[in-house]
Specification:
By secondary structure, this protein is mainly beta. It has 4 helices and 12 strands, in the order E-E-E-E-H-E-E-H-E-E-H-E-E-E-E-H. Strands 1, 2, 5, 6, 9, 10 and 11 form a 7-stranded mixed β-sheet that branches. A 5-stranded mixed β-sheet has the order 4-3-12-7-8. The longest helix has 6 residues. The two termini are 32 Å apart.
């Protein structure tokens, strides 16, 4: 498999490729379970928990400031893709429309299809994170999480929930799907936080 689909990073890329990762020219699709089929007319993003409950529709996200992003993407299954070009809404811009209780310290990301993953608010609110609806100039396909996914470049890609439709703000850490099944609670690629030690 190595050589046909993946290759080792060049020495000058060592500051961009975390340990034990190989580079891909393609964009592999990895999904647990069935792929949800959600149109932009149906799509919504609900906010609740330790935040004022509100539901955003597709038109609401499209009316927010739109930004272009170039970010590296690291999957826990040992592949990385450099310089992925996205368009979407910065998390920090989105959060100006959300009222969060000061007791909230964690978030559960919810997706169509029932997938969940947890993230600390400190990791979620970083300037480089965004909600993506476009990749390489094309609408995000269903296989890659369309019509909308979260992208958190500094953590392994399972934290970048596909088909996102909810953010549940929490006053304590709760574990999502993969975290309950042995994956690391945070998932930082440079520390190789792939699996939980507990």
């Amino acid at each position: 498999m190595l050589g046909k689909f993946f290759h080792k990073p060049e020495p000058e890329q060592s500051d961009r490729v975390p340990p034990s990762q190989h580079l891909t020219q393609g964009f592999p699709v990895l999904t647990y379970g069935d792929t949800p089929h959600i149109s932009t007319d149906e799509w919504h993003l609900k906010i609740w928990g330790k935040a004022k409950e509100v539901t955003f529709r597709w038109s609401d996200l499209m009316a927010m400031p739109q930004s272009n992003f170039t970010a590296d993407f690291h999957c826990v299954t040992h592949w990385s893709k450099l310089d992925v070009e996205w368009t979407g809404v910065k998390v920090t811009d989105f959060m100006t429309y959300v009222e969060v209780d000061p007791t909230a310290i964690h978030i559960m990301e919810h997706s169509y299809g029932g997938y969940t993953t947890n993230i600390a608010i400190a990791d979620f609110l970083r300037e480089e994170n965004f909600f993506a609806h476009t990749v390489f100039g094309e609408p995000l396909t269903l296989d890659h999480g369309g019509p909308m996914r979260l992208v958190v470049p500094h953590l392994y890609a399972w934290k970048s929930a596909k088909w996102i439709n909810g953010l549940e703000f929490l006053d304590k850490e709760e574990l999502g799907f993969w975290e309950r099944n042995g994956y690391h609670h945070r998932g930082e690629p440079w520390a190789e936080e792939r699996y939980s030690s507990v």
